[in-house]
Design goal:
homodimer, Guanylate kinase (chains A, B), EC 2.7.4.8 (chains A, B), nucleotide-binding (chains A, B), Guanylate_kin-like_dom (chains A, B), four-stranded mixed beta sheet, Rossmann fold, five-stranded parallel beta sheet, about 200 residues, ATP-binding (chains A, B)
């Protein structure tokens, strides 16, 4: 009985540092999960390699993949498409390996619908953690700035709702450690482990 | 707003090595949780220190504590009482620190009733893991031995039902790493984190 891999989705508000955390995680040699490379129609930036940083596609190619249902999730930003090819994710999971996605919140919402028992991690911006630690020092900020912050914080907290875990990005290394711990822990969750044992007893 | 600590309960079938794993965890310097020392009426063994290994009590003292509701859980084994003093646990949790209990399965059941949102970890004996890995090599064991094993395994799997996590004790160090990861992850669970953020916004 081949055990399926875990779909790990890292997301969070834009500017939170998802990409930095993801790069740090994948720079570590002892990692037991696979990174799912995104697809985009934007032009490669200097140093970016096709099939490493992104799969670079034309608009026509991308729209054909959308039509064919080949994308697990996708979204358009500033005139460019970004998305996750579904085949790689499905094959890797079927082979019993964990897959790691780093995507925007809209994309995460789409993935949740298709993989309800994926592992959804919300990266919290330092600004929200700071707010939590009450560093919003009154008197040093205008009321507008404070109201703006509070409104952004409200939106960010609203977004959390979809996720299983919330990780503060106070320090990249610490955020990575927490994410790795979450993956280890999730593999030990009774709901995931117990059916294997039960099945094993039936079979034997 | 003082955040409450997490109650961590390590249990599992007798002989699984709960005590060894607990000792290994508490031999590590970077630990962020407190061990709740058990109380017993059995005589101290050589080298055991009152207030370190156990709180040693007379039968009369122990029964008085039971009557006064001062025990979070207790059980009698081979004519001796073993139990967990509730005051230490409650005070430590109220102070925002995590408390770690290593107790028998009957005790864990009692604790679950009083602390439903505690973190319950079931340590799985290597024999069950081995069964999972199909090391029950046919032909080398009598049918009685195999049936016996299967029956024990069934009982052990039955016990898992109460727990949040299942950790294989294949190697003490690995079991400890998993338990520590579970505690880190649990502190990041959205259900635990989100109310703090929500409350913070109301307050500010």
């Amino acid at each position: 009985m081949q055990e399926k891999g875990l779909l790990i989705v890292l997301s969070g508000p834009s500017g939170v540092g998802k990409g930095t955390v993801r790069k740090e995680i994948f720079s570590q040699p002892d990692l037991a999960f696979e990174y799912s490379i995104s697809m985009t129609t934007r032009a490669p930036r200097e140093g970016e390699v096709d099939g490493v940083d992104y799969f670079f596609k034309t608009r026509e190619e991308f729209e054909k993949l959308i039509e064919e249902g080949k994308l697990l999730e996708y979204a358009e930003f500033v005139g460019n498409y970004y998305g996750t090819p579904v085949d790689y994710v499905q094959q890797t999971l079927d082979n019993g390996k964990d897959v790691f996605l780093e995507i925007e919140v809209q994309g995460a919402r789409q993935v949740r619908e298709k993989f309800p028992d994926g592992l959804f991690i919300f990266l919290v911006p330092p600004s929200l953690s700071e707010l939590k630690n009450r560093i919003v020092t009154r008197g040093t900020e205008t009321e507008d700035v404070i109201n703006n912050r509070m409104s952004t914080a409200r939106d960010e907290i609203e977004m959390m709702n979809l996720y299983d875990y919330v990780v503060e990005n106070d320090q990249v290394e610490r955020a990575c450690e927490r994410i790795k711990a979450i993956v280890v822990a999730e593999h030990c969750r009774r709901e995931r482990v117990e059916p294997r044992y039960k099945k094993m007893l039936e079979v034997d």
